[in-house]
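Example record for the data management plan.
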Amino acid sequence: MKERTYLLLTVFMMSLLLASCGTSKNKVKATTSEVKVDSIPLMPKEPELLPIQIKYAEVLGVAPEEITNLKLYEFVDGWLDTPYRMGGENKKGIDCSAFAQHCYVDVYGYLLERTSSKMDKAKSTDKFLGQEFLKEGDILFFKKPNSRDKTITHVGIYLQNNMFVSASGYEGPEKYRGVKISDLKEDWWQERFMYAGRKPLDIYLTEEQ
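Corresponding structural encoding:
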């Protein structure tokens, strides 16, 4: 009798244990099914940097993300180290105004005047003195230092962080005559700098809106 009672108790306890395990499994399944993949936040992808951005960020001393006008820097990259030649208009040799003209046509779709003097005198050139207001694409005007003659003898295109590109007939601090990137803050360039000029480009209109 005792053995039968013990057997019944054992069977009863086993039934309770199996029932509780089954319940916990069901709860786990229910909880798992309620988790949605869409609800898991994804880490935002960092934008991939291009070699041209990395290269010119280092040259200009800026963050690669600030190199946004890829067309401009691809143009500059294609012309760097081209020799200077007065009256030249191609990669065998080019002068400052022809280089600026090529840059504006290829990058901005805007036809500049052919000579630095005409760029300077053009009504469409909005000139200003403050170098702190310079923006990428502005034209820089230079003349011979310590001279009463105000004739513009050189032009360049402003890039970023006080750096500009030009086809220079001067060796300057870079010790090279041709297409090069220069530091406007160098004393050599500062004593020749007259003012900057801005053309009515769409890029400026977009920034102002």
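Summary line stored alongside the record: The CA atoms of residues 173 and 187 lie 9 Å apart.
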